Amino acid sequence: MRSKSTELSAHSKKVLELLSKSAKPLSAYEILDKLRKFGIKAPPTVYRALESLLERGMVHRIESLNAFVACHDEDEEDHEHNHTAQFAVCRGCGSVAEIHDHRLSDLIHELGKKLKFRIEREMLELLGLCQQCEKKTGA
Ligand SMILES: [Zn+2]
Ligand SMILES: [Zn+2]
What we know:
- This protein has helices spanning 10-21, 28-35, 43-55, 102-115, 131-137; strands at residues 59-62, 67-70, 86-90, 96-99, 124-128.
- By secondary structure, the chain is an alpha+beta fold.
- The chain has one domain (3-73, 82-137): Orthogonal Bundle (Arc Repressor Mutant, subunit A).
- It has a three-stranded mixed beta sheet, with no helix packed on it. A two-stranded antiparallel sheet has the order 1-2.
- α1 (10-21) packs across α3 (43-55) and α2 packs across α3.
- The protein starts with 9 loop residues before the first helix and ends with a helix.
- The relative contact order is 0.14.
- Bound molecules: zinc ion (ZN) (2 copies).
- One zinc ion binds next to loops.
C-alpha cells in the first residue's frame, strides 16, 4: 500500500480496497451495493470517498463506462499528482488496462496549441477486445 493511504478516511480505504480487488471497473452504484454489508448506505458517502480518491490519483474514472478503477500505476515517483492515463476498455469481459504513454499526452498538448485550445482534461479510452476475448471469439 502506498504511504499516502494513511491520510485516507476509512470510507475511502474501503472503496479503494474494493476497486483494487475488482477485475472490472465498478460504477458508484455497484460500489454502494457492495459496501452495504459494511454499514455504508448513503450515496454521498461513497461519492465523497470516490472524489477524494480521484483527487489523489488513486482511482480513475472511466468516462465511457461511467465507472471507476483503482490506479495501476506502480511508479511511485509519478504518483505525486493526478496523472493522466489512457485506458483500453474490453467490450467482451469489461476489463480495463491502464496505459501511460507520455507521447500521447505530448501529442494532445501539441494539438491543443495548434488549435489554440486550452485543454483542461484529457480522456482517452480505447474500446475493443482484450487478447483473451479475441481468442474466445475465434475470428
Ligand atoms: Zn493511474
Ligand atoms: Zn476481454
